[in-house]
Amino acid sequence: MPAKNDSPGAGDTPTKSEQTRALILETAMRLFQERGYDKTTMRAIAKEAGVSVGNAYYYFAGKEHLIQGFYDRIAAEHQAAVREVLDRETELEARLAGVLKAWLDVATPYHEFAVQFFKNAADPDSPLSPFSPESEHARVEAISVHRQVLAGATKTKVPDELRDILPELMWLSQMGLCLYWIFDRTEGRERSYRLAERGARLTARGVSLARFRVLRPLVREVHELFTDFLPGMTRMLPAPGGKSAE
User: Fold this and answer.
1) CB within 8 A of 179, min separation 6: which ones?
2) HSE of 135 in the Cβ direction (CA atoms, 13 Å)?
3) Helices within the chain (DSSP H only)
4) CA distance 193 to 83
5) Which residue in 223, 222, 243, 244 sits closest to 235, CA to CA?
6) Are 140 and 148 in contact (CB under 8 A)?
7) For 91, phi and psi rounded to 5 degrees?
8) Under 8 Å CB-to-CB from 244, ≥6 apart: which residues?
9) What is the pLDDT of residue 149?
């Protein structure tokens, strides 16, 4: 049974059903953080939220679907948070740095929770993995942000043959930042913000260099490396030449 998706549109007043779904998700996030993901049951979540177990399962088919709800929430909040940056900035480095720092801002309240369930998400066979089929919606939303980053960088020419590849590689870079952020114990995750700025600078330089035809095969080769060897990526991205990966 798939998780029920009752997310309201922008500006809509949440219905009672949407409020109940949000309450269950909020309660689960709190209990996951307090007790740990593995030790928190759907029954405990339902009891704490003041709903029946059957009602909890009506909205979320299991704990994994609650995490997918969390992923979708982060993706939606990030999409909203980057609008001002993308409307204001036209330089690729500034756009990318703004997007990465906006993700850190959005993720800040969930840091301890992310630490709790990381061991589950790190399993490539887990539905909690950011590369899993179950995480596809949030993953596609995140990659779409990087497409917007490139599309609005008016002074950076992106070769047509790399337009689909680069946003995916930029998202992978964001996943690297996410991993660093999980282990970052500096005040206010200060080092993560510095990494976002320096990573954006390096990425912008790399994209700029990709306009030279001689370097484009190198970018494609990096992409192929990830699609061939990174767990989950072979299911997520097309193989070189437009064929579906096996």
Assistant:
1) none
2) 24
3) 16-35, 42-49, 53-59, 63-81, 83-88, 92-107, 111-121, 136-151, 165-183, 190-209, 216-229, 233-236
4) 19
5) 244
6) no
7) -80, 135
8) 238
9) 96
Regions of the chain where pLDDT drops below 70 = 1-12, 226, 228-246
Closest CA to 207 of 169, 152, 178: 169
Residue by residue, DSSP assigns 82-146 as THHHHHH--SHHHHHHHHHHHHHHHHGGGHHHHHHHHHHHT-TTSTTSTTSGGGHHHHHHHHHHH
Q: 1 CB contacts (<8 Å, ≥6 apart)?
A: 57, 61
Secondary structure of residue 245 in the 3-state scheme: coil
pLDDT (tens digit per residue) in 102-118: 999 999 988 888 877 78
CA distance 242 to 171: 20
Residue 199 is predicted with a pLDDT of 95
pLDDT score of 97: 97
